[in-house]
Design a protein that fits this description.
Elements (H helix, E strand, L loop, with lengths): L5 H8 L6 E7 L10 E4 L48 E2 L16 E17 L8 E9 L5 E7 L6 E23 L7 E2 L7 E5 L3 E9 L11 E2 L3 E7 L23 E7 L4 E13 L6 E7 L1 H5 L3 E2 L5 E5 H11 L7 E3 L7 E5 L4 E2 H11 L3 E4 L5 E4 L3 H8 L1 E6 L5 E6 L2 E3 L4 E5 L10 E6 L2 E3 L3 E5 L4 E3 L3 E8 L5 E10 L2 E7 L3 E8 L3 E14 L2 E6 L1 H7 L3 E3 L9 H15 L6 E5 L10 E5 L11 E13 L3 E9 L2
Parallel strand pairs: 11-21, 18-22, 25-39, 27-37
Antiparallel strand pairs: 1-9, 1-13, 2-4, 3-8, 4-7, 5-6, 5-7, 10-12, 10-40, 12-15, 13-14, 14-15, 16-20, 17-19, 21-22, 23-24, 26-38, 27-36, 28-35, 29-35, 30-35, 31-34, 32-35, 33-34, 38-41, 39-40, 40-41
Helix pairs in contact: 3-4
Length: 636
């Protein structure tokens, strides 16, 4: 549950309540806006100019520089890649004793598709306390005509910004020229220059918000190896015609398109709670209506649009290691994912992935350890092991001391209670598809074969004098290890990248001619067998209900197969009445939280049993009011 104040809980649970909402959209999300290009006329040996348009103003730390300012113990080394942290653009020329630079001055240029500019921003280095003192900003249109010039002198702010009196439309290029720095004998250090276009909507700006979040998708069978993208649908007031795609006077002209970052909140006047981070799909803006709407999906949906092509055969790696490799290859920063330590208990002798989406690779890992992958309300990808949710009921059980004539200790489960006055409709369905008392798991151990030819292309490839070519080959068998590449003809192999499924081979030649490629290696061949587990007591009560797990190349040992089968029987051998609830809703409740609902409300005493459930799915509907649907899997 998202931490909130007691005042919030009192207000959201009140019989009569006022519900508020907020939506924030980044229309020029630098993380996805491929139209933004950054150019500089100089830079240090380590410098990341593209970061000046990523919306991050805080530098990773006090980065050391060979300008005489470095003191041991106080500074850190510069990151080696953009993914390691924020650094921004560092120039090469050092300012003189007065902080002045000489021509040609350090200059940064940002180009992008035509858009309006109504705010200017220049951010220096907040960790080193350095900033530009004198600088010029120039705005140009697509004809390279100068539209606006801002000349700044004697600036004393690390983060300088100015809201223009009149917005400048049709801007395609911005130039920052720095003539004086805050410190002598230093190079320029600019963290942010391009101003992202962000708008916030509240009150009557918002027509409705619909959120769908889930962590189990059964598809008519057991929910095994779940990976689910959350979705939000927003409808905004377009009476001003701001969202019309043809409105050239709109500050959003040319920006109403897919991949706009959306954040949303719902709560009370005193406190709002986040609903998540999403990226828009297509927009619907009818000219004869006053509503602009779009749907957004979370970070996991983006992993469905990128391909994992660099997988190599990994020997004796855990599911934790494999998930980390996939996420790092997808360039998901460590701050944006969380991996359960339980994944370290599942070791794969020979792990590999054929070419597939990053999301599908994560799904296969989740399936092979009965994990669950979803995004939380902060936009963090969570990969939880099979025991994570089950253990929460134990962690939420606390010892209380009963004050009475005969004091005693007793166990109390910390759960969010939903009373009959809170809900409109309740059902406890028993689904046959969620029962299994005989489980079959296929094991696919891999055996290392002898060296053999795994690729041969008899068709010659031509190459010119002085030319370098990169050829992608695919092995006859996947996967292979100990691969040797061979070239016959003109040229030499100057570089190669060998993957589980094939290789990228770079060939160079000083003379014209042709060549053929071949490869030898040891194929890893699967020998398949099955592990069968069953629960005789459940079979006696319910008959045989068989579940055969789909084949997964990561299940390679009998120990893992037996663990999977035992856990599936533990979870699904007996019929359980889960929960479907339509109720008033509380946006602070999140997936995996434990709720308590009366199982039977018409009886007294022992008949009014308390049911405890994990939240597996939520639908929140806001339209000036709040209403919710909730699905829960029984915990006790």
């Amino acid at each position: 549950m998202i931490p909130t104040s007691q005042k919030f809980q009192d207000e959201i649970r009140a019989p009569i309540r006022d519900v508020y909402a907020k939506i924030q959209i980044d229309y020029s999300d630098p993380e996805l806006d491929q139209s933004i290009d950054i150019f500089v006329n100089e830079m240090a040996n380590i410098s990341f100019p593209n970061q000046v348009a990523d919306g991050v103003e805080n530098v990773i730390g006090k980065i050391a520089s060979l300008d005489g300012s470095w003191e041991l113990g106080e500074y850190i080394l510069a990151p080696t890649t953009e993914l390691e942290g924020q650094m921004g653009w560092w120039g090469k020329q050092l300012s003189n004793s007065n902080g002045d630079f000489t021509a040609p001055y350090p200059t940064l240029t940002a180009t992008f598709i035509s858009r309006p500019i109504w705010q200017l921003k220049v951010v220096g280095d907040n960790q080193r306390g350095e900033y530009p003192v004198n600088f010029n900003i120039k705005l140009y249109n697509e004809s390279n005509s100068l539209l606006y010039t801002e000349t700044v002198t004697n600036n004393i702010l690390i983060s300088w910004n100015k809201k223009l009196d009149t917005e400048i439309t049709g801007v395609t290029k911005m130039i920052l020229e720095i003539t004086k720095w805050s410190h002598p004998n230093r190079q320029v250090k600019i963290t942010e220059f391009f101003t992202s276009i962000q708008e916030t909507y509240e009150g009557t700006d918002i027509i409705s918000i619909n959120l769908l979040e889930e962590r189990e998708v059964s598809h008519g069978s057991l929910p095994v190896g779940n990976i689910s993208s959350n979705e939000i649908e927003i409808k905004l007031n377009n009476e001003s015609r701001k969202f019309d795609t043809g409105n050239r006077q709109s500050p959003l002209y040319g920006l109403i398109k897919a991949n706009r970052k959306i954040r949303a909140w719902i709560g009370t006047e005193s406190e709002l709670v986040p609903l998540g981070v999403f990226w828009s799909k297509d927009w619907t803006v009818p000219e004869d209506g006053v509503i602009a709407s779009t749907k957004g999906r979370d970070r996991l949906e983006r992993l469905n649009n990128s391909t994992y092509t660099t997988s190599t055969v990994q020997i004796n790696k855990s599911m934790y290691d494999l998930a980390k490799m996939v996420l790092e290859d997808a360039q998901v920063l460590a701050d944006y994912y969380w991996l359960d330590d339980e994944l370290k208990n599942y070791i794969v002798p020979y792990a590999y992935f054929e070419q597939q989406s990053h999301r599908e690779a994560l799904r296969k890992i989740a399936e092979a350890c009965l994990g669950q992958v979803y995004c939380d309300r902060n936009g963090i990808i969570r990969f939880e092991g099979s025991s994570y949710t089950l253990n929460r009921i134990l962690e939420k059980t606390t010892i209380a001391f009963l004050q009475s004539e005969h004091p005693a200790e007793f166990e109390v489960i910390d759960a969010y209670g939903i009373s009959p006055t809170d809900y409109f409709k309740k059902d406890n369905p028993s689904r046959q598809s969620d029962i299994a008392n005989r489980v079959i798991v296929e094991v696919q151990p891999l055996i290392v074969g002898a060296v053999e030819e795994i690729y041969n292309n008899s068709e010659a490839i031509s190459i010119n004098a002085g030319e370098t070519k990169t050829i992608t080959i695919q092995f006859n068998h996947t996967p292979c290890i100990d691969v040797t590449l061979n070239l016959s003809g003109t040229g030499t192999i100057v570089d190669s990248k060998i993957y589980a499924w094939g290789a990228e081979v770079t060939v160079s030649s000083p003379t014209p001619g042709s060549f053929t490629l071949s490869a030898d290696g040891k194929p890893l061949k699967a020998t398949k067998y099955t592990v069968v587990k069953q629960d005789d007591a459940s079979i006696a009560d319910n008959g045989v209900i068989e579940y055969k797990m789909s084949a997964n190349p990561l299940i390679q040992t009998q120990a893992i197969a037996e663990t999977i089968a035992d856990k599936l029987l533990q979870y699904y051998k007996d019929p359980r009445r889960d929960l479907e609830l339509e109720w008033r809703g509380n946006p602070a409740l999140t997936l995996g939280d434990i709720i308590m609902v009366d199982d039977y409300t018409r009886g007294n005493g022992d008949e009014a049993n308390k049911g405890y459930y994990y939240i597996t799915k939520q639908e929140l509907e806001y339209a000036g009011y709040l209403r919710a649907k909730l699905s829960g899997r029984r915990a006790l």
